[in-house]
């Protein structure tokens, strides 16, 4: 009888284990992209791997360092994005050349949800047979206009997915199509790999809607809720750092319905600009570019002001477009601000006097995530203040006759109060403008509690310091 050496027995056992692992896994290989100098992220990534692990043993793939391997002259997205793009391309090339027909890839900032294995199993059990690319983590873009389509309880057809920190690829023809797309010549200026992949997904989305999928299309799916987020490490591309694993907007919640939006409501010259700037100083995301009439800042997002004036030009009291169109425009804007607020780990808000008139539309747009900060000032004082402004700036677009001023102010206040009375379940925080100017710190503390945020002392000081106690010159 022939004696088998111990080393051969070990080799056979290892081969058997690998074969069993391959049979039990959805994909053949598992790759982890990691820069040579980031040993910290490599250790952190392996330390947080969920158990049981549903994939083959992760293989570290040395990431391309865009600082050492410079991009070509036509590349406009930065060195980090170039390294990310080339790393993913090299993995795809490796699989194509070595006959690997399926794989999952993670970037070393990928962090896993609770009960990952259980939730992953539910997702893959419902994946359609034609799947070629399945995202495990990401961010849904343009989701207001093009929400992900529900395929089953745990599977959605996305419109455009941003980020490449966790996804699976299957099928040689799909891999060839993916490779060709990544090397096509129709890249947009300054796009990253995830942006370019997103355009491929969009074509599939529209193709299915029009029943014209087209040759070379890859079937792309995403889970109802993201299974993989991004760890709180500094990004190699953007340089940002977060305090905890970040999960972006889920397919089942693309509208960020769970995130509040604080609408600062009040007629013109009622103190809403002051309150909006207080919110801004406290860290509330009021917009990317703030403007307004006040010299100290009006706290008005320029985009929101333009939207409101386009549909109800001052001093008009009623919108000129349909309710459905107005609701859609507001929803698109507010959901975008919510998404940015989630990114920045804060809450979103908005201010413009027209929003009093649009309260019903706001509610239809964002539902029960609506929160109201109602600034109260005697309506006669607000009317006199708007009339005074109009006299000083006669001939400008923001000036009106005394009668127009009074009609608009009373209309805005009535619409706000009628909405509040008709919707007792919507949380409302009232701020008396006289109290704000005379007892500022107390009112700021009350507001912070309503917002549910934890500003640092410097932010609170800036909020309190913004208030001028001599503001109430019109009563």
Question: Brief overview, please?
Answer:
The chain is an alpha/beta fold and about 475 residues long. The protein has helices spanning about 5-25, 40-45, 80-100, 115-125, 170-180, 195-210, 270-280, 300-310, 325-345, 360-365, 380-390, 400-420, 435-440, 440-450, 455-465, and strands spanning about 30-35, 60, 100-105, 110, 135, 140, 150, 155, 160, 165-170, 220-225, 230, 260-265, 290, 300, 350, 370-375, 430. β1, α2 and β2 (about 60) form a beta-alpha-beta unit.
Descriptive overview:
With 475 residues, the protein is α/β, with parallel strands linked by helices. The chain folds into two domains: 16-253, Spore Coat Polysaccharide Biosynthesis Protein SpsA, Chain A, CATH 3.90.550; 261-465, P-loop containing nucleotide triphosphate hydrolases (Rossmann fold). Helices cover 42% and strands 14% of the residues. Helix 8 (302-311) packs antiparallel against helix 9 (323-343). It is elongated, with a radius of gyration of 27 Å. It comes from Roseiconus nitratireducens. GO terms for molecular function: transferase activity. Keywords: Transferase.
